[in-house]
Write a structure and sequence with these properties.
Layout (H helix, E strand, L loop, with lengths): L1 E6 L5 E5 L4 H11 L5 E5 L5 H12 L3 E6 L2 E5 L10 H4 L7 H10 L1 E5 L12 H9 L2 E6 L2 E6 L6 E3 L5 H12 L4 E5 L5 H12 L3 E3 L5 E5 L7 E4 L4 H13 L3 E5 L7 H9 L3 E4 L3 E5 L9 E2 L11 H9 L4 E5 L9 H7 L3 E5 L2 E5 L8 E2 L4 H13 L3 E5 L1 H5 L5 H7 L3 E6 L9
Parallel strand pairs: 2-14, 3-13, 9-10, 17-18, 21-22
Antiparallel strand pairs: 1-22, 1-23, 3-5, 4-5, 6-8, 7-8, 10-12, 11-12, 14-16, 15-16, 18-20, 19-20
Helix pairs in contact: 1-2, 1-7, 4-6, 5-6, 6-7, 8-10, 8-12, 10-12
The chain binds uridine-diphosphate-N-acetylglucosamine.
The site of uridine-diphosphate-N-acetylglucosamine (UD1) has 20 residues, from α1, α5 and α6.
Length: 426
């Protein structure tokens, strides 16, 4: 097990370059395999989730080859029916994207159901109902979803609740299913738009991505393309919050501020200066941090993935903040760890009431999930003394070279690997 050891108190300064979007890269990697020709994805992030998904895709015959740092070639011509080991599938909920890929290309699929995770149950019922609307016969047996394509039964599907994963999977399947299919109440996240841009450049006919209604005209086959992945808005938001929490002044490079409207608005409400350039954002602390309330919501609302980092910021802001989590249960578990660092927090069902304290104090804390880990790193950067954040591998799942990026911006952070006494620096 690895740790991050952080000596808090340094203000972040200079610049941080943002990587390609982790969530986009997962959806695009699988989407690229819908064709049978080479697809090149650039601005590809090097995080662990992408590595695991690449392993899963290779299991089912898809070629995934890193041609240069940030440049990945995908070729789906070798795709074949093969059971994905549960041990591999359970590591990553995105593994369920392979269901849509297989159904679209091979007209059959056999995929382990992803199961729950630290965020509580994460069902795939919308994906399955959508597959059925598009003509799949689905059976659930022994933890597996077995499905076979018949003829489409509906020409539209209303997703009960905005779901990124279900929208992605249904875009895959509809792109290679004859007829016109309408997805209603589709997710509007920038990653959905990124996927539509890639698939359209491969010859798909998708209209309306980024709105609630996506219309897809099925085509026979998709061809090769080259596509740059959008910058990671969650990574950018995490570092923006880290800068504000440490009283720093940093320019983020390779960002799209349009994807960060709500986090920018919320940061400004805390009194932090946010200056938007064309592909940069400057974040600079100005005077004391003020508290503000927050409610997570599907895009363009405040991303649930930034709720935990923002909660840390509120723990050292002046006043009391109420944070409401509407997307996932169990996304407040990081607050127990934060309390051990001196935060004043009370959780009441889907609400956290956070009363700002003047300062946090470093402590050993445990990462419960990816974004909680990033939040605890921010807490460590802002705290007095030394913080040991366990579970660095969990944070690696979504953040490329976090230690390197933060050190370059002046943070005193290093990775340690030693379960007993955390002394070996790696
Ligand atoms: C994606 C993101 C994740 C982000 C989340 C919400 C990826 C790889 N992950 O996850 O970082 O936190 O969007 O923005 O892109 N739901 C159902 N049934 C379903 C599907 C979803 O009830 O079949 C519920 C979920 O439990 C959750 C909500 O719908 O409460 C939204 O989930 P969804 O958007 O599907 O999340 P993911 O795609 O898994």
């Amino acid at each position: 097990m690895s740790f991050f050891r952080i000596e808090g108190g340094n203000r972040l300064k200079g610049s941080i370059r943002i990587s390609g979007s982790k969530n986009s890269s997962l959806a695009l990697m699988v989407g690229a395999a819908l064709g049978e020709e080479d697809v090149i994805l650039t601005n590809f992030p090097q995080d662990l989730d992408a590595v695991v998904l690449a392993e899963i895709l290779r299991e089912v015959g898809v070629k995934v080859e890193e041609q240069a740092p940030g440049k990945v070639l995908i070729n789906g011509s070798g795709l074949r029916m093969k059971a994905i080991p549960y041990e591999l599938a359970r590591k990553l909920r995105g593994s369920f994207y392979v269901a849509g890929l297989m159904l679209a290309r091979l007209k059959a699929a056999e995929i382990p159901l992803p199961g729950g995770c630290f965020l509580g149950p994460r069902p795939v019922d919308f994906h399955i109902k959508g597959f059925q609307a598009l003509g799949a016969e689905v059976n659930i047996e022994h933890g597996l979803m077995k499905a076979k394509m018949g003829t489409p039964v509906e020409n539209r599907f209303f997703i009960n609740r905005s779901s990124v994963g279900a929208t992605v999977n249904l875009m895959y399947l509809a792109s290679l299913t004859p007829g016109v299919f309408t997805l209603e109440n589709a997710a509007k996240e920038p990653e959905i738009v990124d996927l539509a841009v890639l698939l359209n450049s491969m010859g798909a006919r998708i209209r309306g991505a980024g709105t609630e209604v996506i219309r897809i005209q099925g085509v026979k086959r998709l061809q090769g393309a080259e596509h740059p992945i959008i910058p990671d808005r969650i990574e950018a938001g995490t570092y923006m919050i880290a800068v504000a929490a440490t009283g720093g002044d940093v320019i983020l490079e390779n960002v799209m501020s349009d994807h960060l409207r709500t986090p920018i608005m919320k940061l400004r409400e805390t009194g932090t200066l946010v200056e938007e350039g064309e592909t940069t954002i400057r974040v600079a602390a100005q005077g004391p941090l003020m508290s503000t309330d927050l409610e997570t919501a599907p895009y363009p609302g405040f991303a649930t993935d930034l709720q935990q980092p923002f909660g840390v910021l509120m723990s050292i802001a002046e006043g009391t903040s109420i944070i409401r989590e509407t997307i996932f249960d169990n996304r407040f578990r990081y607050l127990d760890e934060l309390t051990r660092m001196g935060a004043d927090v009370r959780v009441d069902r889907d609400r956290a009431i956070i009363k700002g304290v003047p300062t946090l104090s470093g402590a050993p804390v445990e990462t419960t999930d990816l974004r909680a880990g990033a939040a605890l790193v921010i807490a460590g950067l802002a705290a007095e003394g030394v913080t040991l954040v366990s579970g660095a591998e969990v944070i690696d799942r979504g953040y490329e070279r976090m230690v390197e990026k933060l050190r370059k911006a002046g943070a005193n952070i290093e990775r340690l690997r030693d379960v007993e006494n955390c002394q070996e620096v790696v």
